[in-house]
Recover the amino acids of this structure.
């Protein structure tokens, strides 16, 4: 796969996430955070089983020793996804979207500090421009950090570390479908167990009421988006992919305009422009060969 094809796949993942931004909030009108995360994650894992079987038939490097890293990726994903879902329930969609996407800046910083990744110079201003663009798209104002904002920021940190771990796994073992499926299954299983102890099984009426969100998040925002991101990370640096998938804020605004009739004012439109320019820069900076080998 060429870097341009990998870039297109990462942007498709951003489209998938953008389509589910509003659903992440509205699903909590019918299910609590544990129930919503459990159901959507398990659906995402089931959807990926055919891809896992197809992937296993390919010519792949040995997977011996991959267990600890696979477990680490799954635990990080469980933490980040669960915290994000609760964050969406305690703050606005705009604030949560902005704070979760600070992972676009945290990913290259953490990779540089802890893994000695050689981050291309252009990625740094692109990451900052992305963050500024997302801030503008969230309204360009800030009223302080509430509980939901802090959870969203914790989720961003988790997703930044998870992005680096995903890159390390898919570079070594080339099994993005298996990685994503196991991560979703672990997340769904953990959240289902906690949900049974905390709030019990959801009622049939609640599940039916949330069915549109369940289908959208489970099939598209989880089953499709995460495996596409993992696939892209076989060919691009984690810092580059983090910027590319942050375009979900732009796609989310477009979906909100088409579905909810929302409009972009001058501030949010300027933010979208900053993100688009950052994505254009990131798309021109493929991973250096040395970083691909280490990631």
């Amino acid at each position: 796969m060429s870097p341009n094809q990998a870039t297109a796949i990462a942007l498709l993942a951003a489209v998938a996430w953008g389509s589910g931004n509003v659903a992440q909030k509205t699903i909590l009108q019918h299910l609590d955070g544990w129930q919503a995360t459990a159901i959507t994650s398990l659906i995402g894992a089931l959807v990926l089983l055919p891809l896992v079987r197809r992937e296993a038939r390919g010519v792949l490097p040995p997977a011996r020793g991959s267990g600890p890293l696979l477990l680490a990726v799954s635990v990080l994903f469980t933490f980040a996804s669960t915290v994000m879902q609760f964050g969406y329930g305690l703050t606005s969609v705009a604030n949560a979207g902005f704070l979760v996407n600070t992972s676009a800046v945290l990913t290259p910083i953490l990779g540089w500090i802890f893994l000695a990744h050689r981050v291309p110079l252009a990625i740094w201003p692109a990451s900052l421009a992305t963050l500024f663009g997302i801030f503008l798209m969230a309204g360009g104002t800030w009223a302080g950090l509430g509980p939901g904002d802090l959870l969203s920021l914790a989720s961003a940190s988790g997703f930044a570390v998870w992005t680096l771990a995903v890159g390390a796994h898919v570079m070594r073992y080339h099994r993005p479908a298996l990685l994503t499926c196991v991560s979703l299954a672990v997340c769904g299983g953990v959240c289902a167990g906690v949900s049974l102890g905390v709030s019990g099984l959801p009622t049939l009426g609640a599940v039916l009421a949330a069915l549109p969100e369940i289908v959208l998040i489970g099939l598209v925002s989880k089953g499709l988006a995460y495996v596409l991101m993992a696939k892209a990370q076989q060919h691009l640096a984690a810092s580059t992919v983090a910027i590319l998938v942050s375009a979900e804020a732009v796609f989310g605004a477009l979906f909100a305009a088409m579905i909810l009739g929302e409009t972009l004012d001058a501030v949010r439109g300027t933010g979208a422009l900053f993100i688009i320019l950052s994505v254009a820069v990131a798309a021109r900076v493929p991973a250096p060969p040395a970083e691909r080998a280490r990631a």
Observations:
- The mean pLDDT is 87.
- Residues 147-173 form the longest helix (27 residues).
- Residues 3-294 form one domain.
- The CA atoms of residues 33 and 85 lie 6 Å apart.
